[in-house]
Amino acid sequence: MVAFPKTLVAAVAAVLSLSTGALADCSSYGVDYSNGGAYYIDGTSNQYFSFITIFQGCTQESISPILVDSDNNQYACSAINTTPAGEQQTSTW
């Protein structure tokens, strides 16, 4: 676990490698965030951070969500699956 010298402002972005047709129908919904919302994470904490996402209309893929801080540094989170539809998927950093 990396400790940050200041509070990390993180936006969750899912890196999807889906075909163009599937991408138009694939949606994700954050259970604990929405509309690209931000988290405020205490950078001095060594606790793991996790978030939950629900996917709808996606083909079977494994994706790697990314946390992006206010300086545009990116932190890869644990991989999650885009199926089954409507099931909660948890990713951890």
Q: How would you summarize the topology of this molecule?
A:
Blueprint: E1 8-15, H1 20-25, E2 27-30, E3 38-41, E4 50-56, E5 62-68, E6 74-76, E7 80-81, E8 88-92
Structural summary, described in words:
The chain is mainly β. The chain has one domain (8-92). Helix content is 6%, strand content 43%. It is built from one helix and eight strands, in the order E-H-E-E-E-E-E-E-E. It has one helix spanning 20-25, and strands at residues 8-15, 27-30, 38-41, 50-56, 62-68, 74-76, 80-81, 88-92. Strands 1, 3, 5, 6 and 7 form a five-stranded antiparallel beta sheet that branches. A three-stranded antiparallel beta sheet has the order 2-4-8. A hairpin with a 5-residue loop joins strand 5 (62-68) and strand 6. The protein is elongated and about 35 Å long. Mean pLDDT is 74; it is low at 1-23. Keywords: Signal. Residues 1-24 form the signal peptide.
